[in-house]
């Protein structure tokens, strides 16, 4: 049975969302508690899946890539699970999100800055989506805020 998330858990996640490299001792100092309490809470949050991953936000422009968000609409009756499993295998697909609304999936990819390569990548991706009804693309120029908690 999952424990309820409390104010302290949210404080931990808020600090980590800003800097995932903070260690237990630093977290304890920032939150005015003990390292052991922080360790226990983080282990529980990870075990229960509340915290899924610690990550970085790269500057794709400096790396020579474009970051593209693609909204995917699929025809009714199409197996979304099968599409998700297929997209998970693509190394260029960095994020797959289920959605409710005009699009059933939002997929984030990285692609070389060359427009012909981007066109090729998007065409390859579209062939992997069985029951594709439509795709809308947005080229992300900058991540100005990325804060989940």
TrEMBL record:
Keywords, ordered alphabetically: Coiled coil, DNA-binding, Transcription, Transcription regulation
UniProt KW Cell wall biogenesis/degradation keyword: no
Leader peptide range in chain numbering: none
Coiled-coil intervals: 17-48
PROSITE patterns recorded: HTH_ASNC_2
Domain HTH asnC-type: 5-66
Keyword Zinc appears in the UniProt entry: no
GO molecular function: sequence-specific DNA binding
Designated name of the protein: Predicted transcription regulator, Lrp/AsnC family
Organism: Thermococcus sibiricus (strain DSM 12597 / MM 739)
Taxonomic placement: Archaea, Methanobacteriati, Methanobacteriota, Thermococci, Thermococcales
């Amino acid at each position: 049975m999952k424990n309820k998330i409390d104010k302290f858990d949210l404080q931990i996640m808020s600090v980590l969302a800003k800097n995932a490299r903070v260690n237990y001792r630093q977290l304890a100092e920032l939150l005015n508690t003990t390292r052991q309490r922080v360790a226990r809470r983080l282990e529980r949050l990870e075990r229960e899946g509340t915290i899924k991953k610690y990550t970085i936000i790269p500057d794709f422009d400096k790396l020579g890539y474009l970051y593209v968000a693609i909204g995917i609409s699929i025809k009714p009756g199409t197996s979304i699970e099968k599409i998700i499993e297929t997209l998970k295998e693509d190394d260029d697909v960095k994020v797959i999100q289920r959605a409710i609304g005009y699009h059933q999936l939002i997929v984030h990819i990285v692609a070389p800055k060359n427009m012909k390569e981007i066109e090729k990548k998007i065409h390859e991706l579209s062939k992997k989506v069985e029951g594709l009804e439509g795709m809308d693309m947005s080229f992300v120029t900058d991540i100005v805020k990325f804060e989940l908690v």
